[in-house]
Design goal:
single chain; alpha+beta; Pnp Oxidase, Chain A; seven-stranded antiparallel β-sheet; 7 strands; 19% helix
Length: 110
Amino acid sequence: METAQVMDAALRKAAALWVAVPGRRGRLVWALWRDGSVWVAVGGDQEVPGLTDDQAVTITVRSPTTHSFLLETPATAHLVEPDEDTAAALRAARLNGPAAWTEVYRLDLP
């Protein structure tokens, strides 16, 4: 199964994945799969220390049902200003309460 299909299937069910910045441990974050990229809102209760614009990161996806490893892939983080539809989708993807973010990153896969 190709990377995009794994991302789409996994994030439809769980809306969470691990993001690791080089030299740091991965962080579990609420995420959104949209337009072929992973979108992550950070700030408040969801932080990815060291995440910056145009940075290489590693995304790890686990099965939402069995928690087994599904995929690990590199990506590039881009600091973006989401449009209204994407912002609404990010708020809906956050299952742990109201979204209070300071930055939104689009993680582009190779």
